[in-house]
Specification:
The N and C termini lie far apart (about 50 Å). The protein is globular and about 60 Å long. Helix content is about 80%, strand content about 0%. The protein is mainly α and about 150 residues long.
Length: about 150
């Protein structure tokens, strides 16, 4: 079952079961996907949908930090629940070792020799790991690998 159909089916079942939180999150996500499809003037690939889901997760994680700093644990808890719902639609996360291996492959492919090649490496790496790892984590690992290469 493709991801769009799965989202639609899960939204219907959330409506039937009265799960308002899941229903709201899925409704918003499907709206974001439709907006992206209109902007693209065509259907989105699964990778593009994963990017949208990742951006929604990132947005909520930022909100969690702000709510916790502001002493609003109730809203932080709500956001955490939404993150869990969204993450269930992403592929399995890469471990640190798997991410490092992917980064090393990308560095070898590009022939990167130092930190100045970060952009080239990330351009090759990101499509491979979209939805399975965060860009900031990948960037950190690539920077470490490139720095050790230069030494």
């Amino acid at each position: 079952m493709d991801l769009i159909r799965r989202l639609s089916e899960d939204q219907k079942s959330a409506m039937k079961s009265g799960d308002r939180a899941k229903m709201a999150v899925l409704r918003l996500l499907r709206t974001r996907i439709r907006e992206a499809e209109v902007a693209k003037r065509g259907e989105l690939s699964e990778g593009e949908i994963h990017k949208i889901i990742m951006s929604e997760v990132k947005r909520r994680r930022e909100a969690i930090q702000l709510f916790e700093r502001g002493g609003r644990g109730d809203l932080a808890t709500k956001e955490k629940q939404e993150v869990a719902i969204l993450e269930s639609y992403l592929p399995a996360k890469l471990s640190q070792d798997e991410l490092k291996a992917e980064a090393e492959k990308a560095i070898a492919e590009v022939g990167a020799s130092g930190p100045q090649d970060l952009g080239k490496v990330m351009k090759v790496l990101m499509p491979r790991i979209t939805g399975r790892a965060e860009g900031s984590e990948a960037s950190k690992i690539v920077k470490e690998l490139l720095a050790s290469k230069q030494e």
